[in-house]
Design a protein that fits this description.
By secondary structure, the chain is of the alpha/beta class. The chain is built from 15 helices and 17 strands. It has 2 domains: 366 residues, Glycosidases (TIM Barrel); 69 residues, Immunoglobulin-like (Sandwich). It is 34% helix and 22% strand. Strand 13 and strand 14 form a beta hairpin. Bound molecules: ligand 9MR.
């Protein structure tokens, strides 16, 4: 690995010098290598330009040398993967997964249930709850199933909280919420888990970096995570997008507080879309001090990231200022680690400095060795399930449950001992509970609808979504 890395480094130096830039990093050290030694992932997106073969040659060389986790900017979203009903297009996503496997990169899947970038045809079913549930289930099952064992982590639900000062679910302009209600979130996690039981499953949102306080988005999300965990909804991580500006000085410490709150719940916090932009009008007038300030903020985020043991991924929403949504869509600019000529900025030095200031021996990793050091077969695209082997959910394969009429049948229970059956509605309220169940039980007291059934027998448990008709 070290040798391959050195060769890439030389190639990279040559590319940069060839393009006429000075490279401050002749040393054989990359932020990827330092993050890896610390059991962490540092990453960025593959821009849509990369998927369309319309990006500068140095992009890929820097990308695979400096980062070890990757996300598709747009190509795994609903409109890209299911442009027509039940007709899936995995071509671009496959291209990325292949690239990631060839270069030892972890893959984040982004995003399954989101109100934005939904294919137009879904709007034909506006307000039709059962149909929308079926559409979302089919989408999640087929997309997650297609990349089972190859995508380490999914943003299962993206941006489902509104922008009010008194945070609540986003109730307008969301085909999912308006048609289904908040239970679409719970269902999405259950379906994603069923399609790939080893994948990490995240709730991802912006403005979480504004801190924990009454009515804030971050506090609302923590409350939901508590509810999900209590009800065995299989969430393992939260993503804080963290699109910020240079003036947002308190945000790193807010992210630290959020990480600590989630650690209590045994949930990982990932920084998923970091950029630290300047106002667009300042382009061309930025001083050394401005870039140093940006670097300082990047460093503070990296410090927090390395110091909080339940943080795993540090992902920046873009590699070079030459390709960034900030300029096109945000009235901001120059928020990334590399400038428009692919020259590393002071922000890059700061990230590197933070990594060096946190020796590997002192940084804890939230990941088991099977994830940090996947077997060689992964490099040829044959990871199987081992790359993601997460011990957190241990649904017993041979335990299963089904309904016939109003009778719930359980198969695969160890003989002699009885099981406990709990049934929750999609908001997590316990609606039925019975102890000492042998292999079937009559459930007549619950109205029709979708529920989550949990069967427990000693340490064996099964959590499954069911429809009672
Ligand atoms: O970077 C993405 C840009 O190319 C798209 O036009 C935009 C459309 O919604 O989505 C951008 O990515 C977003 C991400 O998927 C979710 N969080 C906000 C990101 C920036 O808008």
């Amino acid at each position: 690995m070290k040798k391959i890395h050195s060769l890439s480094r030389i190639a990279l130096d040559a590319a940069i010098i060839g393009a006429g830039f000075m490279n401050a990093y002749a040393a054989d050290e990359t932020i990827r290598e330092l993050a890896k030694e610390r059991g962490r992932f540092i990453g960025t997106i593959l821009n849509s330009e990369w998927f369309n073969d319309a990006i500068e040659p140095e992009f890929e060389e820097i990308h695979k040398t400096q980062f070890n986790v990757v996300v598709a900017e747009n190509e795994m979203k609903f409109d890209a993967t299911e442009p027509k009903e039940d007709e899936f297009n995995f071509e671009k996503g496959d291209k990325m997964v292949k690239y990631a496997q060839a270069n030892g990169l972890r893959v984040r899947g982004h995003a399954l249930a989101w109100h934005s970038q939904v294919a137009n045809w879904v709007n034909n079913y506006k307000g039709q709850k059962e149909k929308l549930l079926a559409v979302l289930k089919n989408h999640i099952t087929k997309v997650v199933g297609h990349w089972k064992g190859q995508i380490a982590e999914w943003d299962v639900v993206n941006e489902a909280v509104n922008d009010d000062y008194n945070a609540d679910w986003r109730s307008t302009n969301s085909v999912w919420y308006e048609g289904i209600g908040a239970e679409f979130l719970d269902s999405a996690f259950v379906w994603a888990h069923a399609a790939d039981p080893d994948a990490e499953l995240c709730y991802n949102d912006y403005s979480l970096e504004w801190g924990l306080r009454e009515g804030s988005k971050a506090s609302f999300v923590v409350e939901q995570v508590k509810r999900w965990k209590a009800n065995n909804i299989p969430i393992t991580c939260v993503g804080t997008q963290t699109h910020i500006e240079i003036a947002h000085e308190t945000t790193p410490q807010n992210v630290r507080a959020l990480a600590k709150a989630l650690a209590e719940l045994n949930v990982t916090l990932n920084i998923t879309e970091l950029d630290i932009g300047f106002p667009k009008g300042s382009a061309g007038n930025l001083t050394k001090a401005d870039y140093a300030k940006q670097g300082h903020l990047y460093r503070q985020f990296m410090d927090v990231f390395l110091e909080e043991p339940n943080m795993g991924e540090f992902v920046i929403w873009g590699l070079t200022d030459a390709h960034s949504w900030l300029d096109d869509q945000q009235g901001k600019t120059e928020g990334l680690l590399y400038d428009k000529q692919y020259k590393p900025k002071p922000a890059y030095d700061s990230v590197m400095a933070s990594l060096k200031a946190h020796p590997a021996s002192e940084v804890k990793s939230p990941y088991p060795d099977s994830i940090l050091n996947p077997p060689d077969s992964c490099k040829t695209g044959n990871c199987g399930d081992s790359i993601n082997a997460l011990p957190r959910f241990n649904n017993k394969q041979n335990l299963s449950v089904h309904f016939a009429g109003r009778t719930l049948y359980i198969t695969g229970l160890a003989s002699k001992t009885a099981a406990k059956v709990d049934i929750f509605d999609m908001q997590g309220h316990l609606v039925f509970s019975a102890k000492d169940v042998k292999d079937n039980i009559e459930i007549s007291s619950i109205p029709e609808g979708l529920y989550v059934v949990q069967i427990r027998q000693g340490v064996t448990r099964l959590t499954k979504q069911i429809a009672i008709k």
